[in-house]
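Curious: can you check?
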Amino acid sequence: MKKWFVTTMITALFIVSACGGGGSNNNGSSAATNAPAATDEAAANNAGASEEPANETIVPEEGATLTVWDSKNERGFVEEMAKEFTAQYNIPVKIEEVESPDQVKKLTTDGPAGIGADIVTFPHDNLGQAASAGLILPNDFFEEETRTANAEAAVNAVTSDGILYGYPRSVETYALFYNKDLVQTPPASFDDIVTFSKTFNDPAKNKYALMWEMGNFYFNYIFFASTGGYVFGENGSNAADIGLNNDGAVEGLKSFQSLNKILPIKSGDASADIIQGKFADKSLAMTITGPWKVGDFKNLGINFGVAPIPTINGKSAVSFSGVKAWYVNSFTKYPNASRLFANFISSKAGQLKDYSLTGAIPANKEAMEDPTFKADEISSGFAAQFVNSQAMPSIPEMGSVWDPIGAALADIWNENKDPKAALDNAVTQIQEAAKGTTK
């Protein structure tokens, strides 16, 4: 009964926000604002969330059949889970191939028309648009289970305006790659990297201990967040609260600047291609990048490992991360059956199967500790870093951050500019650009 009451209250709040005009929500975008208003059918589905039996089980609708959208390369995994789901609940599941980044746009038209999939999946940076347009249902019935089972960073990423919508599926972040032929044990701190560089570096031969894309804010967020900086407050949702030039950010950027002494090159000379070449010919011992480089490095025959990013000033390195999740279409004719499937496919077993078939890194905490997954040094290395990550903000104002901070990083690294002055200038530019975003 307690869950019934909480669910009823959450659902009521959702209906009020959906019917009250989501256009003022900072998480929205022009596409979301122009989306069709939620229909009576979607509102009825939200209202139906309160109709849960007292024994706290969810009962799928009689005669329910489900459609799931997913990318072509994920189809095999979804087919296997669909077969298991149908065998257990006697609910047929159809799969349609729609690439994840395209699903919110397609749902904007197909949802109200009644031809959208019942369950969809997309990256967390599309959540604000989908939620503000009333396209998806809150993850209400399984909220407690979802929050308990998955890493906090993943749960935060699939939450919008304090409401949990997603059922986490997989996660992505970057980590430290190290050549095992050159580095026996991955360094625990950036101080360890500096120490290692004293015996490894040879600038005359362009040989360095560590190189990464020093001008790319995505990879350098570690020097902001690890020491107390942040992009936007309230888990990335409050654009009026910018923490990119606070005391913590300045402290971290001083550490960033100090690394120029072990990597005395211009930031523009550290492109992804240059880094890959040097990592392959062993003139580079370590780099910081993401799982998308694993295949390239394997094809080049590099004997590498992946580990969490070393600590910065004694603090765990906090990276940017992305989260994919399952969501229930608010216009579905079968909201209970859809909730059941979303929870089923996002379970520990589902996430481990996704990993075994596609290499997706699980968000589920127990799955991360599973012996099979732990034995995979590369994937488990990313998972260990994800625990200390923050979801990249998904509000429109994030688009105004990249260029000013990128310019500040270049000034700090290449011109030895005072970090505080460079960051203050960047934040001023972000604030001015954001004014236009919110008009």
Notes: The longest strand covers residues 319-328. The chain has two domains: 2-171+324-391, 173-320+393-438. DSSP finds 22 helices and 14 strands in the chain.
